[in-house]
Amino acid sequence: MKLYDLELSGNCYKVRLFAALANIELEIVPVDFLAGEHKGAAMLALNPFGEIPILVHGEVVLRDAQAILVYLARLHDLESWLPSEPQQMAEVQQWLATAANEIQHGPNAARLVDKFGYELDKPTTLVTSARILGLLNDHLTEHDWLALGHPTIADCAVMPYVAIAPEGGIALDDYPNVLAWIDRIKQLPGFIGMPGQV
């Protein structure tokens, strides 16, 4: 099973993190993002969107970090990470959608501006970040984990770009429950970090 990967990508890190926590073996294939390898013919044949991560498992080729997390959890029948019971699965899925929406357009987008020079509307990224971080902090006032009272792929999906939010000029000091949650994730057996993480 191959993961086409970029070390500095929070989306790629989501998959590496979950694989490490769940003891899933992946062959990591580094992609030379700066040289534009992700837009080359070989990579576009795997993912016409020209994005990473990409998971290749036999004949299965998947793009999008959240989809890959779902695939790995169900492939390995990891009920605690992604239950098959409808309500519980939906509770996890809510947070996967948050990762792909508010987190992507908030902390991730702010980091893209500051760290990589993307031409995005930085003030909008900051407003989006403040809203989602406030909601996260409130949720984590009464919950140790995002869903179901224990670690799930929801935590793996949401945490990466939150934990590297300072690279986008977003301080986390006003969100103590978020910081405590990040620390809980770091204490999980098998945890691996990524550059820039708080």
Automatic annotation (TrEMBL):
The GST N-terminal domain, residue ranges: 1-80
UniProt xrefs under Gene3D superfamilies: 1.20.1050.10, Glutaredoxin
GO molecular function: transferase activity
Record domain GST C-terminal: where: 85-198
UniProt KW Transferase keyword: yes
UniProt xrefs under CDD domains: GST_C_7, GST_N_4
Signal listed as a keyword: no
Keyword vocabulary terms for this entry: Transferase
Family: Belongs to the GST superfamily.
Protein name, entry field: Glutathione S-transferase
Originating species: Alteromonas lipolytica
Lineage, opening ranks: Bacteria, Pseudomonadati, Pseudomonadota, Gammaproteobacteria, Alteromonadales
